[in-house]
Design brief:
The longest helix is centred in the N-terminal third of the chain and has 28 residues. With 582 residues, the chain is α/β, with parallel strands linked by helices. The radius of gyration is 26 Å and the shape is globular. The N and C termini lie far apart (55 Å).
């Protein structure tokens, strides 16, 4: 009877989930009504979500049937397009920006911020209201004509930081011993440092201080310019208090108005010339895009290949750079006669050395036939830089984190845990010296470690050669600026790792010029996976992430998630591990 009930409820859950998914798919396939933008409208940018490079429009994206909820993501591509279209749209009078628990890399937010600055050149307004501005929210809000804050709210302004979680003590307690091999001269390759020591190395501290200093300097300069302040004063304010009270922020010129939300709404009505008893006409950016006429088709196409996420072998999820989908996408771009050029948009901390090299090869073949321009986003580090090296031109944002030219290998053994604590005994029979390598019950011996060291050094040498050939630099010079060290985009230009500063639009302009075409349309590659298949693959762990989001445990979970990735992907890696706190 018990087994029958288990089977019954399992079948009921499966059937209910399938029915719900079917309804969602059928609903999404239905015809949508025509969208008409009312006169005197305000475009609403609601940034209460995670910002990704591009939108995934399928109705099952990030849907979790266990909680019957969906974690929304915002496509930077669509937001930028909506802002650009609103700039000249005769029915859009301004933009209001709303914030919430949104997240996004620094260069992604910079690109959004730059689009809003460009929008203001039309003479139209930007208003924003928030009870409490987070620092990243204020980075965006500072471009607005009027920044409103709630009387009991405030403005976070505390500088940038990063934390590195060290696992050495924890692993010792569990009887687990990491087997780590770094490149002979990779002193800055710190992704494995948390498994080797209990404190930050001087080399790692130096590169982090430089990185944070560069990005904070850019942040204060940008906000100062928008608000008519000085960077020196903004740096001083961050040292004085982590949160600016409304009255303090107003006195310092960081905000414009202290008001409740109804007063903010009245101010918007006044700006639009709307009577107090009438509603403001607003439209969200997704809906606004549906109102626009389709662009004229062109026989010329420029493919934007989005390399966003960890670089992994084989098949991965929608926001991973997996070798299977990406090699297929690159081959399609190379063989398709309508595609005249390719822009590789990189937003990746790296990952598998094998996958990076497989993707590099396809890009190398493509470059021989068509222009290949690289546009770096938040991250193009380690394996992310490896796949960028073949580009005819490489562009980065000033705040892009790039470089990290280095390699490491990692395995874990648990002899103490398995034998002493669990009482397991291992007896080995083998035909050859290395037949049982690596063994989970013992550390690497001298011969085995020598073998892995040789492979890591060989892979690092290959990494150097890719950069030397792709960038036209001297090998000794690349090694001197490599060693696993990360750089901002601004410093990477000075070092010769990047050609120029610029965004995705700049990269497209260069691609069109090199392809000698004036009119073109863009296509996004690789295509996202089938929505149902992706939903099933994403279920593992997604519920935990959603439950912890916004709680004090979120950062702890992220740290363990990074450790889980490294433990779950043994072997030779090209990866950078940092997350800015701001």
């Amino acid at each position: 009877m018990k087994d029958f009930l288990k089977m019954f409820f399992a079948s009921l859950l499966a059937g209910g989930t399938f029915f719900l998914l079917t309804l969602i798919v059928l609903f999404s396939m239905g015809a949508e009504p025509e969208v008409i933008v009312p006169k005197n409208s305000v475009l609403t940018l609601n940034l209460n979500a995670q910002i990704k490079e591009r939108s995934n429009d399928n109705p099952l994206a990030s849907f979790n049937p266990l909680s019957m909820s969906s974690e929304k993501t915002l496509g930077l591509d669509q937001m930028i397009r909506a802002i650009e279209a609103a700039k000249t749209h005769d029915k859009i009078q301004g933009i209001r920006v709303q914030f919430g628990g949104f997240s996004g890399g620094f260069s992604s937010l910079k690109r959004l911020r730059d689009a809003l600055i460009d929008f203001k050149e039309s003479g139209k307004f930007i208003y924003t209201y928030q009870e409490v501005y987070s620092q990243r929210a204020y980075f965006i809000a500072s471009v607005a004509d009027s920044v409103f804050v709630n009387p009991t709210g405030g403005l976070e302004w505390r500088g940038l930081g990063t934390q590195v979680t060290y696992y050495t003590k924890m692993l010792k307690k569990f009887g687990i011993e990491p087997q780590i091999i770094r490149g002979s001269n990779n002193q800055f390759k710190s992704a494995v440092e948390p498994f080797l020591t209990e404190e930050m190395s001087p080399a790692n501290r130096l590169q982090l201080e430089t990185l944070l200093g560069d990005i904070w300097s850019y942040t204060t300069d940008a906000v100062a310019q928008s608000r008519g302040l000085t960077a020196k004063d903004l740096m001083k304010y961050a040292d004085e208090a982590p949160m600016q009270e409304p009255e303090e922020a107003l006195e310092k010129g960081m905000i414009d108005v202290i008001a409740y939300e109804d007063e903010y709404t009245s101010a918007l009505k006044s700006r639009l010339g709307v009577a107090e008893d009438r509603k403001i006409k607003t439209i969200g950016y997704s809906k606004f895009l549906k109102s626009l006429d389709d662009e004229e088709d062109s026989k010329n196409e420029i493919a934007i290949i989005y390399a966003e996420g960890d670089i992994v072998d084989g098949s991965g999820s929608g926001y991973q750079v997996d070798s299977e989908r990406f090699t297929n996408a690159i081959r399609k771009a190379r063989k398709d006669k309508d595609i005249k050029a390719v822009v590789l948009r990189v937003n990746s901390p790296g990952g598998s050395a094998m996958a990076s090299d497989v993707i590099w090869r396809e890009l190398y073949l493509l470059k021989a036939e068509k222009p290949l321009i690289v546009s770096m986003g938040d991250l193009a580090a380690s394996g992310g830089y490896y796949i960028s090296a073949p580009g005819d031109s490489v562009l980065a944002e000033p705040t892009t984190i790039t470089g990290s030219i280095g390699v490491f290998g990692m395995f874990f053994t648990a002899g103490e845990l398995l034998e002493d604590d669990l009482g397991l005994v291992y007896e080995t029979v083998k035909t050859s010296e290395f037949a049982d390598m690596p063994a989970i019950n013992r550390p690497l011996n001298e011969a085995e470690r020598s073998f892995f060291q040789k492979n890591v050094d060989r892979t690092y040498g290959k990494f150097l050669s890719r950069v030397v050939n792709g960038r036209g630099l001297d090998s000794l010079y690349v090694d001197s600026i490599g060693q696993g060290r990360v750089w901002t985009g601004s410093r990477a230009v000075a070092l010769g790792l990047v050609d120029a500063l610029g965004n995705l639009d700049d990269a497209l302009a260069i691609a069109a010029n090199k392809a000698d075409i004036e009119d073109y349309q863009t296509i996004a590659l690789p295509k996202f996976k089938d929505p149902v298949q992706q939903l099933i693959e994403d279920l593992t762990g997604s519920q935990i992430k959603r439950e912890l989001k916004g709680t004090p445990l979120e950062s702890t979970y992220k740290a363990f998630e990074k450790a889980q990735f490294l433990i779950g992907h043994p072997g030779i890696q090209m990866r950078m591990e940092y997350e800015l706190i701001w």
